[in-house]
Every structure is written in structure tokens, then in C-alpha cells.
Amino acid sequence: MTAMDIDKKSYMPIYYQLQELLVGKIESGELSPGDKLPSENELAAQYDISRNTAQKALRALVTWGLAQRIQGKGTFVSNKSVTFSITASLGLSSEIIGMNKQPRSQMLQAKIIEATYDISQKLGIEKDAQVYIIQRLRFVDDMPVMIQTSYIPVTCLPGLLSKNLEDVSLFELIMHDYGIEVDNATEVMRAVSVTRFEGEMLQISEFSPAFLLQRQTYLKDGRVLEYAKTIVRGDKSKFYVELNKKDLKA
Questions:
Q1: How far apart are CA 51 and CA 55, in angstroms?
Q2: 78 or 91: which leads in pLDDT
């Protein structure tokens, strides 16, 4: 990078230009995981900017999970974020795009409960009807990346809790053991902050940024088979969406 990369006459703030330059170096692979980033003083001298401006740029990279500070040593490029496909979200392994990563799960709870009003509305069933709640902590390699909670009417899948639910695709199990194929699903994503429990599970601080995915999966007869709520940590994840020509509208 050279001072020519910073346009001090631009309407864009200097710290924003610098952080974009650094992001570009990381995303392109020019800076690899584990590489040490220039210090605030080094960046200030290199670009003829204030130390405070350089500090703001580095702080943004840390906030986004692209870099991490190590006390007494400096700021280093983090391991790459895990890329998930929104359009393939019925199985964790199918969500991981272009990375040699190993997914696994840890069961948090699997039991039968009575549907609350909210859950009954999501599933299209009577309030207090019996539903399975299956909650799993999902890892990529050894990093916890999401908490996935599924609600399924007991009448749809009798005996489900006797199955191995921890490290298998729930929908592959349903298709194989019950002969049921899902027809379609709808999913809504929004930005949230994690609760204390979610932060403890995902090994991040309370109120850290995350994504909330809410999915309803339908059978061919129109019944809802599953309502799933997934919390995905925001500092280590990004999402991939593939659009067709008909979706590309200005």
C-alpha cells in the first residue's frame, strides 16, 4: 500500500478509505490469517494521517472479526469467516461454501413440549399441542458458529427422539427414516444482538452482533413440518446468495 491509495480530497472519511484498503488486502489473500497488520503508528506514518484515524480503521477490522488484537503483540488477521449459503440452509454441511471445514453438532436439548401461542402460529397447529424442540450448537472445525432450534409437531414424526439427532442432517434423517420429502421453505434473516446465554454458547460477548434466521419448512400438502430459529454469530460468518437473471432488477 502507498500513500497514493488515500485520497484526502475524497468525500469518504480517511479512516473509511484505510479500512477498505485493509479489507481488500485480507479478502484478496494478500494478507493471510495470522499475518500481523501494521501498527497504528506505522499506518499513520505510511499514509501521513493521524494515529487516531489509523486506530479507527483497525478497530473496525476487529469489530467485524477480520482481525484480532493480541495484548502486547499487535493486531493480526483472523481466520477466514465461514460462508453460508442461504439457499442451501436445510443442512449445515451444505451451507459451508468453498472451504475445507468440518461441521459437527452438540445437542443442547431434545424433548417434547407444549406449543406456545407463537410456536403454534408458526407451525399452524393448536396451542398446547405437543411439539419436539431440538436445539443444537453447531461448530465449524472447533469454532461454535450457530445455535439452531427446531420445532416439529410430534404427530408428523412419531418416535423422533429415539433417533440419532446430534451429527446428522435432520432432513436427510426425515427422508430416510420416514419417507417424507419437504416441498419448500421460506426464510427471513435479520440482524440481532446475542443474549447472555447465546454469547456463552458461541464464546462471544453479550450483545455481540449476530444474524437471526427464521425458517418455515413445508410439506407438499401445505402443512408446516418445521419452524427453525437459528442464531449465527456475526463476527465469523457471511452469507452467499445466488441470483437468476429474473431476480436482477434495478
A1: 6
A2: 78
The least confident of 123-127, 193-197, 230-234, 236-240 is 236-240
Of 62, 57, 44, 63, the C-alpha closest to 13 is: 57
pLDDT score recorded for residue 2: 45
21 in Cβ contact with 30 (< 8 Å): no
| Amino acid 83: pLDDT | 64
Cell numbers 472479526 correspond to: 65
Taking only the tens place, the pLDDT of each residue in 124-158 is: 999 999 999 999 999 988 889 999 999 999 999 99
pLDDT attached to residue 94: 43
Instruction: Please state, in angstroms and as integers, the Cα–Cα distance from residue 82 to each residue in 106, 145, 226, 240, following that order.
Output: 18, 8, 25, 10
* Per-residue pLDDT at 85: 59
Full-model pTM: 0.70
Strand partners, 135: 109, 149
* Distance between first and last Cα of the chain: 34
DSSP H or E run through 15: helix 14-28
Count CA within 13 A, CB hemisphere, residue 145: 25
Alpha carbons 24 and 123: distance in angstroms, whole number: 43
Nearest 10 degrees: Cα torsion 171, 175, 180, 182: 40
For residue 148, the SS3 value is: strand
Closest CA to 26 of 14, 37, 13: 37
Domains of the chain, CATH where assigned: 11-77 (1.10.10.10), 82-239 (3.40.1410.10)
